[in-house]
């Protein structure tokens, strides 16, 4: 069973940047970053195909960049120009339409001045 471990979160001020990592214990397919804010459902933030093509939610387009290193079974999320509304627990998993893996613990991103 593939395990997912997210890391890189923390406290950042508005306008700041943060890079998240998702390390998988096995090979990864098309992947996505998800986030869940307090009182809200988990939402899809970005996806990346096995070939490295990224797609983004409108709310983060132009600010976030998803990437992957297949040799390391790792997916990254570079977050720039962070806003308070980006505050959430961030998770990685397979992209929608693909059987999901067991969710990891996520990593907390708090954007606050």
How does this model look, in words?
The structure is a single chain. By secondary structure, the protein is mainly beta. Helices cover 0% and strands 47% of the residues. It has no helices and 10 strands. The strands form 2 sheets. A 6-stranded mixed sheet has the order 2-10-9-4-5-6, with no helix packed on it. A 4-stranded antiparallel sheet has the order 1-3-8-7, with no helix packed on it. A hairpin with a 4-residue loop joins strand 7 and strand 8. The protein is globular.
Mean pLDDT: 96
Give the oligomeric state of the chains in this entry, treating copies of one chain as homo and distinct chains as hetero: single chain
- Largest sheet at a glance? 6 strands, mixed
Number of strands: 10
Q: Estimate the global geometry from the Cα principal axes.
A: globular
> Which structural class is indicated by helix and strand composition?
mainly beta
Strand order of the largest sheet: 2-10-9-4-5-6
Strand content: over 45%
Write down the secondary-structure element order: EEEEEEEEEE
- Percent in helix: under 10%
pLDDT < 50 runs, ≥5 residues = none
Output the number of helix runs: 0
Q: Which radius of gyration do the C-alpha atoms yield?
A: 13 Å
N- to C-terminal distance: 40 Å
How are the elements arranged and paired?
Blueprint lengths: L3 E4 L2 E3 L5 E7 L6 E6 L6 E6 L5 E3 L7 E6 L4 E6 L8 E7 L12 E5 L2
Parallel strand pairs: 2-10
Antiparallel strand pairs: 1-3, 3-8, 4-5, 4-9, 5-6, 7-8, 9-10
